[in-house]
Amino acid sequence: MANTNDPISDFLTRIRNAQIAHHSKVVMPGSKMRLGMAQILQRAGYVATAEFRNEGPQGVVELELRYDDADEPMITSLTRVSRPSRRVYVGVSEIPDVLNGLGIAILSTSKGLLTDKEARAAKVGGEVLCEIY
């Protein structure tokens, strides 16, 4: 598979491209970060399943995408907030509220990967990785 310097942007781009092509599944190289983000998307209801399989040298993460009744993707926007060249860190009081609570922000915190709501409840800040709605 392709070598990438920013695995989070690669993760988001693979999902975005699969939805444009109306694929039912996305398979990407595995990592703890990608699996954690995939599980958050599953808990939020944006993807049907997110699983890790031991295939190849590092395993793969497979997502089953969800579409609504009009065959439109459940995910409208995937935006990378913190980049390798510009990290965005926030305290608990500055955690963004994506689309007035209708979307989610994924944060990397000292307690692991959390959504914006989970981070507020745990009273921890961290690096804002992406916003999804």
Question: What does this entry look like structurally?
Answer:
The protein is of the alpha+beta class and 133 residues long. The chain folds into 2 domains: 7-65, Ribosomal Protein S8, Chain: A, domain 1 (2-Layer Sandwich); 78-132, Dna Ligase, domain 1 (2-Layer Sandwich), CATH 3.30.1490.10. Helix content is 26%, strand content 30%. Strands 4, 5, 6, 7 and 8 form a 5-stranded antiparallel β-sheet that branches. The protein has a 3-stranded antiparallel β-sheet with strand order 1-3-2, with helices on one face. The longest helix is centred in the first third of the chain and has 14 residues, at 7-20. This is Small ribosomal subunit protein uS8. Pfam families: Ribosomal_S8 (PF00410). It comes from Bradymonas sediminis.
Strand content: 25-35%
Shape, principal axes of CA atoms:
globular
Amount of helix:
25-40%
Largest sheet: 5 strands, antiparallel
The total number of structural domains is 2
Low-confidence parts lasting 5 or more residues at pLDDT below 50?
A: none
Question: Residue-averaged pLDDT, rounded?
Answer: 96
**Level-2 CATH architecture of the largest domain:** 2-Layer Sandwich
Helix-strand string: HEHEEEEEEHE
The count of β-strands is 8
End-to-end Cα distance, whole Å, is 28 Å
Radius of gyration: 15 Å
At the first level of CATH, what is the class of the largest domain? Alpha Beta
DSSP helical segment count: 3
- Label the structural class: alpha+beta
CATH topology of the largest domain: Ribosomal Protein S8, Chain: A, domain 1
